[in-house]
Amino acid sequence: MVLTSYKRLSQKANFTETEVSNVAEMNIEFVNDGFRLDESQSIAKIEGDEATIPHLESSSNGTKSQSLSSEMLEHENFPVFLSKSSMTLLVEKAEPDIRLHQEEKNEKVNDVGNEGEERGGWSNKLDFLFSCISVSVGLGNIWRFPYLCYKNGGGAFLIAYFVAMVFCGIPIFYAEVALGQYLGVGGMTFIGQLVPIMKGVGFATMVVVVLIDIYYTVIIAWTLFYLIASFTALPSLPWAGCDNVWNTPNCYVPTDVANLTYGISLTNSSVSAVEEFWTERVLGITDSIDNLSSVRWELFGTLVLAWILVYFIIWKGLNESGYIVWFTALFPYVILLVLLVRAVTLEGAEIGLLYYVTPKWDLLLTAGPWIDGTTQIFFAYSIGTGALPALGSYNTFKYNCFRDAMITCLVNTVTCLIAGIVTFAILGTIAHATNASIDSVVTSGPGLVFITYPEVVLRLPGAPAWAVLFFIMLAILGIDSEFCNVESFVTGLSDNWPGKLRKNRKFFTFLCVLMMFLLDIPMITQGGIYIFQLMDYYSASGMSMLFLVFFQTISIAWIFGTSRFCDCIEQMSGSRPSWFFYVCWCFFGPLVMAGVFLFYVIQYIPVTYGENYQYPWWAEAIGITISLSSMLWIPGYAVYYIVTTPGTLKEVLAKGVTPVCKPRSGAPPLPPSADEVKKLSNVL
To answer: pTM of the entire structure?
Structure first.
């Protein structure tokens, strides 16, 4: 390789004869279009007012050298120097004439030179903000947050949730977006570029994303089923009464005030009409996972429709869907606010709201609220899925993403809290009407949103119209989250194999969608809800998500270096993150995640469906295998890297923690690490 020209970073630094004497011997290495310090190679040596610089072109006589006067050092075509007085790197990026074989040169131009053009960018600055809101505000807020809160005793869950939000959620959200923007890549490759030996984090992320994408679309299929069903019983709603073919003798109607006034006898086996519509009409649920029975063909049709909608939104890339995400980010709040106002004004709502905010302190001594609260933050914020780096990668290098990240986290948390208020207000109303306790009015599980929200809709004037609007909102949230997650997967793989996949993006996206659709089919059988619960518990919750985000965080903070990461952010935004983010990335976040993980392992609780159903041992084994399918990529790839990389163990480990990232077009090179700055200080 022949390097014949260099570009100096600092335009303000002019060397004089006096200043040249302050520049000492440097050790640098040319790697991936940038400079890196290396103890084994002396590139520049200052003697008095002259610099001896070995020319990098090899010849049969060995390495050539040339002497340069201090005046010549002012020219821009010379290597990197460090000013002893300012300790500032004066050359950031080399733009050499690299004479490669023609095939390699063509490949480099195709894959890197046109990266910005192939990758695309936002057409409007607000597109990024609304895309962040769209990907992080979705079914995780409306569907998942309320049922986990209900499952873990209300207030106890909220305490764990807010601890995780402050020390893990907000700092890691910002870190993922910022790194995606800095490197210009998606979630599969960004950790591998910073810490090559930890590239398994990217593969683990893609496995988690695939698992989430697979079962997330089932929720959309349920939602579309409700939307279509809302038209079938006009001018009423199909879950408004107990005189349907799917209803059982235990059915009752909470809104039937007259019957309740005259003392209809309700027992522990009584089930509301809304809940029976969910279990008997939508799911046709069987008694166990051993009995999957037949496919629910109506759900099969809505599942096909869901995947068609997802595919046609993302087939050109998320960055070209700007106006779509504007609508999908804003419309749900209109409907949600209407439901909020109605829910809190219902009789008995205060019972549920008190349960919502009152902690059961004994539950905080168990692992359940902590593991669910922490992973809910990751799930709702889309942390660890690769979606946030993918979104950030479409930003320009100098964009200040901090404000958008903070707005998104705030909106996300407020949405969760509003969804919880609506849900628990309805639970309180049902408890008041049935004279039952809050924790026994419905079966806790992933279908909670399909019980509480249809219940509040029944209490609105013009219920069918509000039902249609609500399920349109829920479908939008689901499709919104799903196409962002699928985009994360497609972008991640395209970044890893750009030469092949970016050119065939539409076809590759179609293959991904088809594969996930086929894997969805077992979950739309009559016993499919048991598989769904297994997928949710072991793929996006529990130890796998904690394990992944923990190693992602320590790769950034401990191996790449928190100070160095702050330097990267300063290069983009012009200012360094506050001390709070520094200590969260470096200490609080990893400590919280490690503590919760160990707590969970020590007090391991097998998955259940509702309060009573216990999964058989083989289903539990499948669940643990689902978790391990993502977790094992991290240590597995590290072992693979050590075994396959040439050199001694010390050399391999040193190489494994040395960044190999390529600066984006027009971006400066990576800032030096703390060790590199220390070496320079010792030299000077």
So the answer is: 0.76
